[in-house]
TrEMBL record:
It comes from the Bacteria. The active site is at T13, T89. Belongs to the asparaginase 1 family. This is Asparaginase. Residues 220-319 form the Asparaginase/glutaminase C-terminal domain. Residues 4-195 form the L-asparaginase N-terminal domain. Substrate binds at S58, T89, D90. One of its GO terms (biological process) is amino acid metabolic process. InterPro entries: Asp/glu_Ase-like_sf (IPR036152), Asparaginase/glutaminase-like (IPR006034), Asparaginase/glutaminase_AS1 (IPR020827), Asparaginase/glutaminase_AS2 (IPR027475), Asparaginase_C (IPR040919), L-asparaginase_C (IPR027473), L-asparaginase_I (IPR041725), L-asparaginase_N (IPR027474).
Length: 341
């Protein structure tokens, strides 16, 4: 039986071709994708296309566009076996992470991919990313989807979306999942690590939770930064602080005073690490104790992208019981380790 995959084209380099008159890149009509990649006809799946009215650079993708992708998936969920989202690479990890939190009770693959070079270039990575992305989006065994989560496929690797970050603007191997194993890998054989795949532990039916709040600020501290800067920022409900190592910050009375003031003003403070690998461990070093003292929230080993989109999804969300802090510390869809490092 041929599986049906819906291709959702949002924009990005993968959908561009060079105008040889002007020399600039322009989007092409994805309805003609089979002319660009005739191998698509050899796959054991049927492909339909849903395109954004105007292809967007990934830097223009945000909460409204995430909702647009989610709406397409919700409307077509019963009609297709899987979804392949073509997206620009710069913010793909944000969009894919956001969708992982929004799509509840997901039992089908939602695979994001893109490319570093346009699909028409001689040395492009678009062809392999596109074709193998389709493979994973249509992969079923015993009438059940093998992948039942939001994932990113890029340069031979299938990665959990909310564990992924873009670390290179130059190399084809542009994405990494430093704190979680690879879900699948493409080589001579197309492999899947079934033990690493996420599975919903409840019988929750598929639905979309569209709630996203923008009352959030992300701030990276740096040596010598005056802590008073944080009190001069617009007041927000959630401040995500990206701190040193496993959770340290300047050891001073002013640091604690500023953080306490923020907490007294009603701001929840989430702490994530500037390190690519590893995570937060309050109490491991003395200079992390201030966060426990003021009631900050450990981000464990969340990527910055997942921490931001998780906070956007949970803040003031009426579909969750309990406080923001209680909900943020729960593992929702495999986005972080259950325990601190």
């Amino acid at each position: 039986m041929k599986r049906k995959v819906l291709l959702i084209y949002t924009g990005g380099t993968i959908g561009m071709e060079k105008d040889y008159v002007s020399g600039s890149l322009k989007p092409f009509n994805f309805e003609h994708i089979a002319k660009k990649i005739p191998e698509i006809n050899l796959l054991e799946c049927e492909v339909a296309i849903s395109s954004f009215p105007e292809p967007l650079d990934s830097s223009d993708m945000g909460p409204e566009e995430w909702k647009q992708i989610a709406t397409i998936i919700e409307e077509e969920y019963t009609h297709y076996d899987g979804f392949l989202v073509l997206h620009g690479t710069d913010t793909m990890a944000y969009s894919a992470s956001a969708l992982s939190f929004m799509l509840k009770g997901l039992r089908k693959p939602v695979i994001f991919t893109g490319s570093q070079l346009p699909i028409g270039d001689l040395r492009t990575d678009a062809r392999e990313n596109f074709l193998t992305g389709l493979y994973y989006a249509s992969l079923y065994e015993h009438d059940e989807a093998v992948v039942q989560e939001v994932a990113i496929y890029f340069e031979y690797k299938l990665l959990r979306a909310n564990r992924t970050l873009k670390y290179s603007a130059e190399y084809f191997d542009a994405y990494s999942s430093p704190n979680y194993e690879i879900l699948g890998q493409s080589g001579v054989h197309l492999n899947v690590d079934k033990e690493a795949l996420f599975r919903n532990s409840t019988d929750e039916l598929f639905r979309v939770d569209y709630h996203l709040s923008s009352d959030i600020l992300f701030w990276r501290i740096f040596p010598g930064m005056p802590m008073d800067y944080l009190l001069k920022l617009p007041q927000v409900k959630v401040l995500i602080l990206q701190v040193f190592g496993s959770g340290t910050i300047f050891h001073s009375a002013k640091s604690e005073k500023v953080l306490r003031t923020l907490r007294e003003q009603g701001t929840d403070i989430v702490v994530v690490s500037q390190c690519v690998s590893g995570g937060i461990s309050f109490g491991k070093y003395e200079n992390s104790n201030v966060f426990s003292a003021v009631g900050a929230i450990s981000g464990h080993d969340l990527t910055a992208e997942a921490a931001i989109t998780k906070a956007m999804h949970l803040l003031d969300n009426p579909n969750y019981k309990g406080s923001f802090a209680e909900n943020f510390q729960q593992v929702l869809c495999g986005e972080m380790s259950a325990e601190e490092f």
